[in-house]
Design brief:
It is built from 14 helices and no strands. It is mainly α and about 325 residues long.
């Protein structure tokens, strides 16, 4: 019995180590492809739409196929804590910006980055490495909540700091039609109806789910390889302070007073550690804000996160 436990522990340690090494290698591959070859931009232009419009939605729907709706009984708490981490992040940076004299387009970009973190592309492979596939439905609930906030609070931030004339309805429409958001809604409906994956498609879905995890990491590396502004890096550090220090501490404190399942707590804390979402760069650009400030914030935040990954099991043990 003791031998079996030791073998199991060794196997888990090996799996975690292997996943971490693979995680870093895929990000490094994307970074090098973007930095030292002329193909990075072209690959990114094909890969991101493929992930966002097809592979990620299919993964979300197929995962929610197999989830009994009554297993998501903690969804209200997940939604509430998700909203809390977004709203407090926005409030903290808004108060900080009141003490500074940045340009409005910089303020808006920084506020978007402090409010909206990477809710899918990084948490998805990390959850597979450390928490298992059971975490995906919880990530979907979290992501759905974030997308609703992005179309409301995000649009409000963009409009408030915008210095140009833009089509706000078009921006909000694009956010509402964001494929992962639609996939989450469809997946929940199918889950309620107890629909399961048709057997002829199970192999295709399995391959897609694995490929999505790996290609998401490659996409992160490609984004890191882009040029970012050293001039804006000091401003971006304020986002890191709020997004990756203050918010995780807040979420850790709040989770201590809840009776949520361990997996739910782990997913929420994992999400709170994430850097700004790449989507904030697109949103900043759509609203006429400084997209370079947003890109710099995303890059620096991701670089800050990477050295912490080997310590994630240790950090999650305190939740």
């Amino acid at each position: 019995m003791k031998y079996d436990q030791e073998v199991s522990s060794t196997q888990i340690s090996f799996d975690v180590t292997f996943n971490l090494v693979l995680f870093y290698l895929l990000i490094l591959a994307g970074f090098l492809l973007s930095r030292i070859t002329p193909y990075g931009k072209k690959v990114q232009n094909y890969l991101n739409p493929l992930l966002i419009n097809f592979m990620l939605p299919l993964l979300i729907i197929s995962t929610l196929f197999d989830v009994a709706f009554d297993t998501l009984t903690e969804s209200p708490q997940v939604i509430a804590i998700t909203a809390l981490m977004h709203l407090v992040g926005a409030l903290l940076l808004f108060l900080y910006l009141k003490t500074k004299n940045f340009k409005p387009e910089n303020d808006g970009a920084l506020l978007l980055c402090a409010t909206f973190h990477n809710a899918v592309f990084l948490p998805l492979p990390l959850s597979h490495a450390f928490l298992g596939p059971a975490a995906v439905p919880l990530i979907a609930v979290h992501s759905l909540t974030q997308m609703i906030l992005l179309t409301t609070l995000g649009a409000l931030i963009g409009s408030y700091y915008n210095q140009e004339s833009i089509d706000r309805e078009s921006v909000v429409r694009k956010a509402l039609l964001f494929p992962p958001l639609l996939a989450t809604i469809i997946g929940f409906v199918l889950s309620i109806l107890s629909v399961s994956v048709p057997s002829p498609f199970s192999v295709v879905i399995s391959v897609n789910n694995t490929a999505t995890t790996y290609l998401s990491l490659l996409a992160v590396g490609l984004a890191l390889g882009k040029e970012f502004s050293l001039y804006h890096s000091r401003q971006a550090l304020s986002v890191v302070g709020v997004r990756q220090i203050a918010i995780p501490l807040l979420v850790w404190f709040v989770l201590g007073f809840t009776d949520l399942a361990p997996l739910t707590k782990d997913v929420l804390f994992l999400e709170s550690l994430m850097p700004s979402a790449v989507l904030t760069v697109v949103y900043a650009s759509d609203f006429g804000l400084n997209s370079q400030v947003a890109a710099t914030s995303v890059t620096i935040g991701t670089i800050v996160l990477l050295p912490l990954l080997p310590f994630l099991p240790f950090l999650l043990s305190f939740v």
